[in-house]
Specification:
By secondary structure, the protein is α/β, with parallel strands linked by helices. It contains six helices and ten strands. 28% of the residues lie in helices and 20% in strands. It is globular, with a radius of gyration of 19 Å. The model has no long low-confidence stretch (mean pLDDT 95).
Length: 232
């Protein structure tokens, strides 16, 4: 298997300003994703940092990663989609003769993801699936404590099932994407939006490594977890 690793790091960020190069544990945030890709076996020639921002690109270069590709401005807005961003990076890789048979998306906002997490997802991937995606156990289960409002009556009803389960353990497992690892079939990505993928395989990660940095509170949680891990 020959993965193409894409690390998206646009300059704009509203929840945590300049988060992609903000120091976490004394290192710029993007360093953790670059390190994880390398530790998973990726040569630097197969790692594309997708950024529109010169300072982010320079930060990656200071970490030893060559940054030749720059993301077009129209793919770096708040409304630009991940699929379009990846397709552009894939086209660039194709134009450079970089061979790959799957795409691994590593979002910098998952700094606690490890090389083993990436390897585990890659081991689950095969060309006959659309995507392997990292997940954690969902905090709310649609069979147990996730409800919807009936538009006709305004009353709550259970999202799935008959609502008679009295123990969460009896409910079918429910998963949520944690944003850490996506291993994607290039043909599937070119053919359809990711939400239309019919063959998705979960790669389970523990909650402790599933922090997704979106708010300042998330950042504090990540710092605390990293500090605790360093003491062990």
């Amino acid at each position: 298997m020959t993965p193409l690793y894409i690390i998206p790091a646009r300059g704009g960020s509203k929840g945590i300003p300049r988060k992609n190069i903000k120091l976490l544990g004394g290192r710029p945030l993007i360093a953790y994703s670059i390190d994880a890709a390398r530790a998973a076996g990726a040569p630097d020639s197969s790692i594309i940092l997708s950024t529109d921002d010169a300072e982010i690109a320079d930060t990656a270069r200071s970490l030893g990663l060559e940054v030749e590709y720059m993301r077009p401005a129209h793919l770096a807005t708040d409304t630009a989609g991940s699929r379009e961003m990846m397709l552009d990076a894939m086209d660039w890789a194709d134009s450079r003769g970089i061979a790959y048979d799957c795409v691994v998306l590593l979002q910098p906002t998952s700094p606690l993801r490890t090389a083993d997490d990436i390897k585990a997802a890659l081991e689950l991937y095969s060309p006959d699936v659309d995507m392997v995606v990292s997940v954690k156990e969902a905090s709310a289960n649609p069979y147990y404590n996730c409800f919807e409002t009936d538009p006709a009556t305004g009353y709550l009803h259970i999202s799935k099932g008959d609502g008679l389960l009295v123990r969460r353990q009896d409910a079918p497992a429910a998963w949520e994407y944690n944003g850490a690892v996506y291993v994607i079939n290039p043909a599937s990505l070119r053919a359809m939006p990711m939400g239309a993928f019919g063959k998705r395989i979960p790669s389970v990660m523990p909650a402790a490594r599933s922090v997704d940095l979106d708010t300042p509170t998330d950042w504090l949680v990540a710092e605390a977890l990293m500090s605790q891990s360093a003491k062990l």
